[in-house]
Amino acid sequence: MTETPTFAGVAESLRTATNLLTGISDTPRLDAELLMAHALGVERSALLLDPARYEVPELYAHLIARRMAHEPIAYILGYRDFWTIRIEVGPGVLIPRPDSETLIEAAVAHFGASAPARILDLGTGPGTLLLAALSEFPDATGLGVDASEFALAFARDNAGELGMADRTAFQSGDWGAGVDGPFDLILCNPPYIADGEKLMPDVAEHEPAEALFAGADGLGDYRRIIPDLPRLLAPGGLAVLEIGATQHISVGKLAEAAGFAVACRQDLGGRDRALILTLVR
User: Fold this and answer.
1) Which domain holds residue 28?
2) Within 13 Å of residue 207, how many CA atoms lie on the same side as its CB?
3) What's the pLDDT score for residue 213?
4) How far apart are CA 124 and CA 105, in angstroms?
5) Per residue in 110-146, pLDDT tens?
6) What is the pTM of this model?
7) Are residues 109 and 46 both part of a single domain?
């Protein structure tokens, strides 16, 4: 059991918390600041602007103790900022990653001044990619599909909070099965981690395995998703799939076999992250 730490003033508390979280988190200072702001009920920007105006609440020590026990920061806060929007999350729901913003960048770059009319997000989770795309294309409507009714409840709440309820529909499903196209933009962040791969405790002990793992080689869901995409994609449309950093060639071959031309976009870390698919036949 993690011992609850004790803290003094805000500035000193942030330093102490950062030291405690070093080795637990890749971003210990950021985590310390986000948890302090959350405990105070203010935005992080307000905290950083004038930390001396605040007193450290008792709750802060308990939040740091939870993070020291490897509970994901997004579950503690109840949200994750993604692209330009805030996504509500909780235990049992896949947490949005900054790397996934690469898919939205690819869509924006492709469509430019034109815009997709209909967007499909396969494996939408809490609505992350669909709602981010709709924030960029205000005249578009979208459908989010997920096998988890629990995740879809978060997606519907997020759409409502973002004022997009009338532009979205969410349904339970097995990838594209039972979905009628065509869609101008298809987004998908499927499970792509091989079953035997070791993950950080934050992920392995807390996030849903069904949203992470995809068979012995991590390609199981791509083999089911990609052959169905030509049926769902409108002429001139775009499909963008998130991939693991080493999966460009293997997933690309699956897409080419289904009749797609394949391009790849890298994330901010320089890793292959998004396969960009356009139909050539």
Assistant:
1) 10-69
2) 22
3) 87
4) 17
5) 998 889 999 999 999 999 999 999 999 999 999 999 9
6) 0.93
7) no
